[in-house]
Amino acid sequence: SNIMGFRACGNLDGELAYLIKHIKKENIYKGGVSFIAGYEDLSLKEIILLAQQDEQTKMALNAYISDVTKAIYGISSSFSSKDKIYEILLAGRGSELQYIKDKIINSINIGVPVKMMNSYSNLSKRAAQGAAFIANGLLGGRFEPIVSNLMIKEAKGSILDDIFIPFDKEKLLSDLN
User: Fold this and answer.
1) Residue 161 included in any domain
2) 96: CB partners within 8 A, 6+ apart
3) What is the model's pTM?
């Protein structure tokens, strides 16, 4: 969904990328809540406490909540009907904190329950767990029905097929291989 994270900036505007000129991969892992607040070494719990008395930190948290809210509405609008949305699942280190969860719930008005996504391990992020489920399903394991439903095995092409800005796709793909 490319939303801002605690550390990472999330999606990056093309005009901004052009102005900055030299964006390195390490830069996309900066610019999130802790970076905006100016306290990269603090935990999210500490950032929440600090936001009660520091305007910059409060603004950083509000930007994060706004980004999450926009993502929820963006995903919700892709459904053919509001009646098809049964629940909203939250994941990530921020959603485990009641303060963040309450802020998100109060910022949306979709009329469905908001729940925490189950985690199967405290050692890995939920995205990594999802990747493991897909790998398991691709190999015919317990999560094969999910892979079948997503039609992953029928997928064709590359991630660049629907990018229509001018660039040398073939060269980039060969460099990636």
Assistant:
1) yes
2) 116
3) 0.74
